[in-house]
Amino acid sequence: RADAAALRAVRKSHKLAEVCYDIRGPVLQRAKQMEDEGHRVTKLNIGNLAHFGFEAPEEIVVDVIHNLRGAAGYSDSKGLFSARKAVMHYSQQKKIAGVGIEDIYIGNGASELIVMSMQALLNNGDEVLVPAPDYPLWTAAVSLGGGAPVHYVCDEQAGWLPDLDDIRRKLTPNTRAIVIINPNNPTGALYPTAFLEQLLEIARQHQLIVFADEIYDKVLYDGETHTSIASLADDVLCVTFNGLSKNYRACGYRAGWMIVSGEKRHARDYIEGLDMLASMRLCANVPAQWGIQTALGGYQSIEELIAPDGRLTRQRDLAYELITQIPGVSCVKPKAALYLFPKLDLNMYPIEDDQEFILKLLEAEKVLLVQGSGFNWKQPDHFRLVFLPHEEDLRDAVSRIARFLESYRKG
Ligand code: PLP
């Protein structure tokens, strides 16, 4: 046996150098360790609806079970016909023009397709504009694909809308695409149509592909409606992502989709690349694909939960009210999705390393949040809170956060 010191270190690939996914990072590891030690940790870190008693609609579950026996074989690489047909109808409802079955790919969650869409596109040196803050898979997928993520700022003062001037400043001859997350995770922002049109104009002028992550497009409060950016232009190449995870509370099924629309004539080669990657992974989880048609064809979405007195609306209102009562904490009220992204006044709370801050909070109060830097937010002054727990648990968790901040302020 060789001496340990003589063994050549097995290192992760350089492609992972810029990849981070702190939502399931070191702080979560510490939380798990604390649970193993017998502590009860309140987890406000992940948008996992099922863990908080938001069950997947019965009809979807029944249909997945019903089809389970026949679902042991591979499907077409791009997905079952019935699932893709249902997504095609959904894109018609969303007014995305000219989408046929061949423009639709079913994946193991939107996540797999996000990674695939970047792998198929990028060469070294290619740049992709990604929002800050972002859902960190996007930054990671660009890096893993060999590209360079370039972050454009979303402006908290403007309700977290992307700053169009910042986007223009960050364009270079190497910019290939722009990512928008609408409705947004982590900020809860929902982008108005006029804004989407301005963004499309930039994409049109600079021949950028628009990657639109719309996984929360039904999780909308206060009667808001969602517009798919792809519905506003048939002369820009758009790739739209969605799935069963959030709207249908079935994230464990790993069922998502991707729709290629708009100007495709110059994108044959890219589409060939997507087809190739879809074939290489054979197909997405087939049992879950049987739930897609049922989900999109029925009435079992999220309406009841987002009604004015629905559970999600009540929890959003409560979490917002309680968190903004804490001195030195402000927050843009989310119009959509499942999260608050509050700001801490650094004059009051002198945080230098937000991961360390969140770790101290966890150890002191057994409440698990995610630090803003986990969403590629550069200042150590934000965190993300998931408002999925019941009202009583939310009250308890936010009062613990308040108590921790009070002691942090006093040093
Ligand atoms: N996109 C956003 C903005 C998300 O918040 C998430 C999950 O939290 C995903 C994509 C991943 O979705 P899926 O479960 O379909 O992989």
Quick summary:
The chain has helices at residues 26-36, 58-67, 81-93, 109-119, 137-144, 164-170, 193-206, 268-280, 286-297, 303-306, 311-324, 354-365, 391-409, and strands at residues 42-43, 104-107, 127-132, 148-155, 161-162, 175-181, 209-213, 238-243, 256-261, 329-330, 339-340, 343-344, 367-368, 370-371, 383-386.
Question: Can you tell me about this structure?
Answer:
The protein is of the alpha/beta class and 411 residues long. Helix content is 36%, strand content 15%. The chain folds into two domains: 11-54 and 305-409, Aspartate Aminotransferase, domain 1 (Alpha-Beta Complex); 58-297, Type I PLP-dependent aspartate aminotransferase-like (Major domain) (Aspartate Aminotransferase, domain 2, 3-Layer(aba) Sandwich), CATH 3.40.640.10. It has 13 helices and 15 strands. The strands form four sheets. The chain has an eight-stranded mixed β-sheet. Strands 11-15-14 form a three-stranded antiparallel β-sheet. The chain binds pyridoxal-5'-phosphate. Pyridoxal-5'-phosphate (PLP) binds next to helix 4. The site of pyridoxal-5'-phosphate has 13 residues, from helix 4. Belongs to the class-I pyridoxal-phosphate-dependent aminotransferase family.
